[in-house]
Amino acid sequence: QVQLVESGGGLVQAGGSLRLSCAASGRTFSNYAMGWFRQAPGKEREFVAVISWSTAYANSVRGRFTISRDNAKNTVYLQMNSLKPEDTAVYYCAADKFRTLSSNDKNYDDWGQGTQVTVSS
In angstroms, rounded to a whole number, what is the distance separating the alpha carbons of residues 43 and 118? Predict the structure, then answer.
């Protein structure tokens, strides 16, 4: 089990950038696949990106968002560029102990509390 704490959310204008961070506890961080999900008001939680031995992205963010990790710092990042109002949501990081590149939130065991991202038009 890992404990996850997101940070870096905020208010940004359309076209701007933000970098989210997710700090993880535990010694085995490198053994987990790490994913980012988001949930907008009134909508279901949706997959954004995941990093394991490779990376995968939702079509809606591919080319604009980049997921990366620093295992020495037990941290995963989500660099978000060219932000759009439809990117507004609470963003969550999550850990998958089976290290899949899954976009299914049911495959993830541990979740952070979320960080709000608001993109104004």
Answer: 15
Q: How far apart are CA 115 and CA 112, in angstroms?
A: 9
For 78-99, how does the pLDDT look when each residue is reduced to its tens digit (9 = 90+)? 999 999 999 999 999 999 988 8
Three-state SS string over 61-97 comes to CECCEEEEEECCCCEEEEEECCCCHHHCEEEEEEEEC
Looking at residue 110, what is its pLDDT? 95
Where in 25-58 does DSSP place strands (E)? 33-39, 46-51, 55-57
Question: 11-46 burial, b if ≥16 CB within 10 A, otherwise e?
Answer: ebeeeeebebbbbbeeeebeebbbbbbbeeeeeebe
Residue with tokens 């290290």: 99
Cα separation, 53 vs 47, in Å, equals 18
